[in-house]
């Protein structure tokens, strides 16, 4: 139901004895035009009655039918006896008759301001800037004459060229729609729209509306038409401007809304019980005067079904529904939403009512004139001027919000200028949010969530609309939703029921009141249209209209506006019901489809802009649980750019936590993915849910993202202990620990202990991660405390796979090998001893990154002779090393291999084989082993790498020639001997060739003129010749091959 927007009318002038024909309000002046042609000028203040200033007697010869004011020329426009005259203020003289506008029936005035380019040029040439535009005031006066319209215009007070345009009919009413269009009312059924710029007239075309489109609930339209016929009322033309796009025209008892294209712009129409006598518009409300007998009576007298006096009905131009109905005689009272009862005669006298003019004050109001229809009463009491004053805009909006009519409140706000309501923008945002809540309550979740997103509503408030499974401690019961969003506090349900019972008990008393004592609402107006004015309360009569009301409600349910209002009303007046499972799921789908993802993306960008990312700071942020619910609700609903970093963080925590819980309900497969990326989820809010659902993988990911590694590893250990397979038991813990960096070293050491106890090999994998590099010294210390053998494996990994070249690590590994070898020998673990010792020997033999002297110092007292020998070799003490091989180890082949390793001709190690031979043949220690045979084997295999003379000198005297035969043969083949032999042979060969050449050079042939070629038998002459062996035959050079073949054949 619509709220009552106007206060009870009050009389501002009474007992006016002349017949008032026109009224004009201009500033604080009110001009009254009478049937006698007089003009009364009054002063009016909002808190007082009219005060007479002067009376212009006989301003016109006949009745002043219409008054207007033109600001450009500060003149009053008066229409009298089909003549339009301009009267300049304040003297009203000299009058100017608009002679071109003959046979005038009406006029309309419209003024507006536009910006025009300056006509001054050249003043800004130096700065090259355009002159600022100049505001220009333009005023048009349209005069509707017989079958034409005459157009007067003024530009900043200067008269412009007169224009005329023929019309098919004579305009009885002229109303401007905008700066270019005006609507003409020819008759009660004929209207047109005139374009000033195009000078074109377009006839208004109206299609018959469907019965369901009437604003008095379409199912009742037929009844109102029937009643019109019964009343026999004569329809009058009427047109008013509703907004910049629409106008309302009267056709019989129906109000039709047309657009600028001269066609109906809305499917809904206004259905009056009878053709209104006059209409007026006070933004955004439509006033209409209804004739006597058109309004139903609520009197208990069965004989009286209608009210016998006129009535003023007020409708909203937004919903087209009645808001108030005042029946004459009006009851004047103080400021209240409805008139108070007053003592009235049993049969009240009717009066004619004229809707005259709007007030130009800040608070919209309307003046109307009432004149008793009874001549004697009219002569004695005269006419009265009443003022309908609208409540303040803020009060109207508050009433609509209190009633839950948020859609109507928003539409009303659209009609209000920002100058008239200081906090208009804030109120719009607040009411849009409240309307979205009512949409949510009505099950239109997508629409509500889209509005929340558009308005940047605090996520805590949006999440609070959902059950505790989604919102946690933010959850709010539905009866407190409106209050949460800044709406009025919901009244106690018990108190409401008590008031309902009291209201029902008083309805019978209300019905007994006289008809003129009530402001009628939409419900009672509907009954009036039906002509059903039975006895009893409205509630009782509505119960009797069960079927009809059901049909009417069904027909209006298709209208979005009415749907919104219905939803709003239900949210305020009925106990909120629990959301069923389907609605619950749809509501969450809406939340995860738009609001939460949109907020999450934008919050991420906003936080990133100030250098805050969940990957780096999520674990450092104060938990959401430390902030009270009230503080979370108090976070501002504003664009993210206007929030502080702390507020952005709270937003992000709320959004991510709600998104996860929502995913669990509608998209469980996506819940885990949220934790695998950086997020701001509140751990305390979700870990219980994850444990209850046994979503341990997701819980582990959450702990990891929040850097709560201790909890994550504890969880993995608990899960691993339930596994029977050893690999499965420790796999997840190993993989988790491999990703922790140096900053979590203590946690790694603490958690790795359990893994190592289960499987040392898998435990070692923790420290072999390619993703992070832990402090190697600390890791080695940690592993050595647990197991030296485990530490050697870690050091081997560093050296072999990570190419570690640090001397410290190499020294440490060698020392560990030696320690393990000695410990294993003491424990008589031969396998471990041999394995460790082999590794030690291989290590010290192949690497050079350890300190040899340091290691030798550690092993010098031990009986690890081979290792000591290798170290001595590294130190260049080859004789001592070979002595260990020969005397201690008695490993002659290894001694030879040692010599091969270090032998290099031309260097200080070129005598290493000779050193070994000396150790064999000249022992420095007492030995019982015969070393002659190893010495002879050495001589036979490596004679070339020894000095022959020194080797022979070392041999004992009793060694036979046969024992050293191989050595001696090889000795002769040594380079020094081999080179001398080759040199002598080469010299002999050269001498032989020289002698043969000398012999050949002594042979000659003599060519004379008579010498003949034995091949061609021609004279040889001075040509090239060839001499043939062995007898010295001479032929031409060209004959040489043929002669040589002949010689060969002859030899055969």
UniProtKB/TrEMBL annotation:
<feature type="compositionally biased region" description="Polar residues">
    <location>
        <begin position="569"/>
        <end position="579"/>
    </location>
</feature>
<dbReference type="InterPro" id="IPR001180">
    <property type="entry name" value="CNH_dom"/>
</dbReference>
<protein>
    <recommendedName>
        <fullName>CNH domain-containing protein</fullName>
    </recommendedName>
</protein>
<dbReference type="InterPro" id="IPR019452">
    <property type="entry name" value="VPS39/TGF_beta_rcpt-assoc_1"/>
</dbReference>
<feature type="domain" description="CNH">
    <location>
        <begin position="17"/>
        <end position="325"/>
    </location>
</feature>
<dbReference type="Pfam" id="PF10366">
    <property type="entry name" value="Vps39_1"/>
</dbReference>
<dbReference type="Pfam" id="PF00780">
    <property type="entry name" value="CNH"/>
</dbReference>
<dbReference type="InterPro" id="IPR019453">
    <property type="entry name" value="VPS39/TGFA1_Znf"/>
</dbReference>
<dbReference type="InterPro" id="IPR032914">
    <property type="entry name" value="Vam6/VPS39/TRAP1"/>
</dbReference>
<dbReference type="InterPro" id="IPR000547">
    <property type="entry name" value="Clathrin_H-chain/VPS_repeat"/>
</dbReference>
<feature type="repeat" description="CHCR">
    <location>
        <begin position="766"/>
        <end position="925"/>
    </location>
</feature>
<feature type="compositionally biased region" description="Basic and acidic residues">
    <location>
        <begin position="497"/>
        <end position="519"/>
    </location>
</feature>
<feature type="region of interest" description="Disordered">
    <location>
        <begin position="554"/>
        <end position="582"/>
    </location>
</feature>
<feature type="region of interest" description="Disordered">
    <location>
        <begin position="493"/>
        <end position="520"/>
    </location>
</feature>
<dbReference type="Pfam" id="PF10367">
    <property type="entry name" value="zf-Vps39_C"/>
</dbReference>
<keyword id="KW-0472">Membrane</keyword>
<comment type="similarity">
    <text>Belongs to the VAM6/VPS39 family.</text>
</comment>
């Amino acid at each position: 139901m619509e709220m009552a927007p106007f206060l009870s009318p009050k009389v501002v002038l009474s007992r006016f004895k002349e017949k008032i024909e026109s009224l004009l309000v201009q500033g604080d002046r009110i001009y009254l035009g009478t049937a006698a042609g007089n003009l009364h000028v009054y002063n009016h203040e909002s808190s007082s009655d009219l005060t007479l200033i002067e009376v212009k007697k006989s301003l016109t010869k006949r009745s002043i039918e219409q008054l207007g004011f033109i600001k450009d020329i500060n003149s009053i426009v008066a229409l009298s006896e089909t003549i339009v005259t301009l009267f300049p203020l304040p003297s009203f003289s000299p009058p100017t008759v608009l002679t071109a506008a003959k046979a005038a029936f009406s006029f309309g005035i419209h003024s507006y301001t536009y910006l025009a380019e300056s006509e001054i040029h050249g003043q800004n040439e130096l700065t090259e800037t355009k002159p600022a535009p100049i505001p220009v005031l333009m005023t048009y006066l349209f005069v509707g004459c017989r079958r034409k319209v005459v157009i007067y215009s003024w530009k900043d007070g200067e008269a412009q060229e007169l224009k005329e345009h023929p019309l098919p009919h004579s305009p009885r009413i002229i109303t401007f729609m905008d700066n270019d269009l005006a609507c003409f009312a020819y008759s009660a059924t004929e209207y047109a729209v005139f374009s000033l710029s195009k000078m074109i007239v377009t006839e208004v075309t109206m299609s018959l509306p469907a019965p369901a489109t009437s604003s008095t609930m379409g199912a009742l339209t037929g009844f109102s038409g029937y009643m019109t016929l019964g009343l026999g009322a004569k329809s009058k033309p009427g047109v008013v401007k509703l907004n910049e796009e629409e106008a309302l025209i009267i056709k019989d008892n129906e109000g039709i809304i047309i657009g600028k294209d001269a066609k109906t712009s809305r499917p809904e129409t206004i259905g009056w019980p009878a053709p209104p006598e006059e209409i007026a518009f006070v933004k955004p409300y439509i006033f209409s005067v209804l004739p006597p007998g058109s309004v139903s009576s609520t009197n208990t007298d069965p004989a009286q079904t209608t009210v016998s006096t006129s009535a003023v009905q007020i409708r909203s131009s937004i919903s087209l529904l009645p808001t108030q109905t005042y029946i004459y005689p009006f009851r004047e009272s103080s400021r209240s939403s409805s008139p108070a009862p007053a003592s009235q005669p049993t049969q009240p006298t009717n009066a004619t009512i004229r809707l005259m003019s709007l007030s130009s004050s800040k608070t919209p109001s309307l003046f109307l004139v009432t004149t008793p229809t009874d001549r004697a009463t009219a002569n004695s009491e005269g006419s009265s001027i009443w003022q309908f004053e609208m409540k303040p805009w803020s009060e109207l909006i508050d009433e609509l919000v209190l009633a839950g009519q948020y859609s109507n409140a928003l539409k009303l706000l659209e009609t209000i200028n920002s100058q008239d309501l200081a906090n208009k923008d804030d109120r719009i945002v607040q009411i849009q949010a409240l309307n979205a809540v009512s949409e949510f309550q009505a099950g239109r979740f997508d629409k509500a969530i889209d509005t929340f997103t558009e308005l940047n509503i605090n996520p805590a408030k949006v999440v609070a609309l959902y059950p505790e499974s989604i919102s946690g401690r933010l959850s709010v019961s539905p009866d407190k939703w409106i209050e949460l969003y800044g709406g009025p506090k919901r009244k106690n349900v018990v108190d409401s029921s008590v008031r309902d019972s009291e209201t029902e008990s008083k309805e019978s008393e209300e019905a007994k009141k006289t008809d003129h004592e009530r402001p009628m609402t939409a419900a009672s107006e509907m009954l009036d249209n039906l002509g059903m004015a039975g006895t009893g309360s409205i509630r009782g009569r509505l119960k009797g209209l069960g079927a009809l009301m059901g049909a009417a409600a069904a027909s209006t349910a298709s209208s979005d506006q009415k749907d919104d209002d219905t939803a709003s009303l239900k949210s305020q007046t009925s106990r909120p019901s629990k959301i069923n499972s389907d609605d619950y799921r749809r509501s969450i789908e809406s939340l995860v489809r738009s609001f939460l993802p949109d907020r999450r993306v934008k919050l991420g960008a906003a936080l990133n802009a100030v250098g805050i990312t969940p990957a780096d700071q999520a674990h450092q942020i104060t938990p959401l649980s430390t902030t009270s619910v009230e503080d979370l609700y108090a976070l501002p609903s504003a664009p993210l750019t206007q929030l502080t970093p702390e507020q952005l963080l709270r937003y992000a925590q709320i959004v991510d936590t709600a998104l996860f819980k929502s995913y669990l309900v509608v998209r469980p497969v996506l819940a885990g993915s949220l934790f695998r990326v950086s997020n701001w989820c509140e751990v305390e809010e979700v870990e219980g849910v994850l444990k209850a659902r046994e979503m341990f993988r997701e819980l582990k990911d959450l702990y990891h993202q929040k850097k709560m590694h201790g909890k994550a590893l504890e969880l993995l250990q608990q899960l691993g202990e339930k596994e029977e397979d050893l690999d499965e038991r420790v796999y997840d813990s190993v993989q988790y620990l491999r990703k922790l960096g140096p900053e979590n070293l203590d946690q790694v050491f603490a958690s790795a202990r359990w893994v190592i106890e289960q499987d040392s090999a898998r435990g070692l994998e923790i420290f072999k991660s390619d993703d992070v590099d832990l402090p190697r010294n600390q890791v080695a210390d940690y592993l050595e405390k647990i197991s030296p053998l485990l530490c050697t494996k870690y050091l081997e990994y560093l050296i072999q796979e990570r190419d570690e070249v640090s001397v410290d690590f190499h020294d440490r590994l060698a020392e560990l090998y030696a320690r393990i070898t000695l410990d294993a020998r003491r424990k008589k673990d031969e396998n471990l001893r041999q394995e460790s010792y082999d590794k030690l020997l291989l290590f010290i033999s192949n690497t050079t990154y350890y300190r040899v002297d340091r290691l030798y110092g550690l092993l010098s007292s031990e009986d690890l002779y081979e290792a000591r020998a290798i170290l001595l070799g590294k130190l260049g003490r080859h004789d001592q090393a070979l002595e260990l091989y020969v005397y201690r180890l008695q490993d002659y082949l290894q001694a030879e291999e040692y010599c091969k390793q270090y032998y290099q001709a031309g260097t200080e190690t070129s005598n290493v084989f000779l050193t070994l031979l000396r150790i064999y043949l000249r022992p420095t220690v007492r030995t019982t082993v015969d070393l002659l045979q190893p010495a002879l084997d050495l001589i036979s295999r490596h004679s070339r790498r020894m000095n022959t003379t020194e080797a022979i000198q070392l041999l004992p005297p009793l060694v036979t020639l046969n024992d050293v035969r191989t050595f001696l043969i090889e000795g002769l083949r040594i380079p020094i001997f081999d080179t001398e032999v080759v040199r002598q042979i080469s010299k002999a060969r050269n001498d032989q060739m020289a002698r043969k050449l000398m012999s050949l050079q002594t042979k000659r042939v003599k060519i004379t003129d008579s010498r003949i070629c034995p091949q061609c038998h021609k004279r040889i002459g001075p040509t090239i010749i060839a001499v043939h062996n062995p007898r010295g035959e001479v032929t031409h050079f060209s004959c040489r091959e043929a002669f040589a073949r002949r010689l060969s054949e002859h030899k055969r």
